[in-house]
Amino acid sequence: MSSIGDYIRQQREQAKISLRQLADSAGVSNPYLSQIERGLRKPSADILQQIAKGLRISAEALYVQAGILEDRPADSGVRSALLTDPQLTERQKQVLIEIYESFRRESQASPTTAEVISVTREPAAGPVADADPA
After folding, report:
1. Kindly report the CA angle at 18 between 15 and 21, in degrees rounded to 5?
2. Span 105-131, mean pLDDT?
3. Domains contained in the chain, CATH given
4. Which of 54, 71, 81, 88 satisfies CB 3.0 to 4.6 Å to 25 for a cystine?
């Protein structure tokens, strides 16, 4: 697993942002950001949030990478796999996670097959009278 500094550098390079530009937009000094990327400094949650804003990515992604926030255990590893995939852009990761979570919510909210069958097999109220007397 790569360090938080490697992850930040990777995200910065994917976004085609220079170290100086990210430092300025995140409100941290250029040398401090360089030290974070090289693994010499461990950023606080507040600094990670500022860096996330500068990179236009979710702070949660940085928190998970930094070990500050554990990935949700109920996701079968899908979220962490998406968050750490170096071939996906941050926007692609966010969209895929949103789709994945919407499918999970949908499957939790939808009735089971047994519930659907029991509702559709309810007995009729009785014979229907013919409206046209002969």
Report:
1. 100
2. 56
3. 4-119 (1.10.260.40)
4. 54
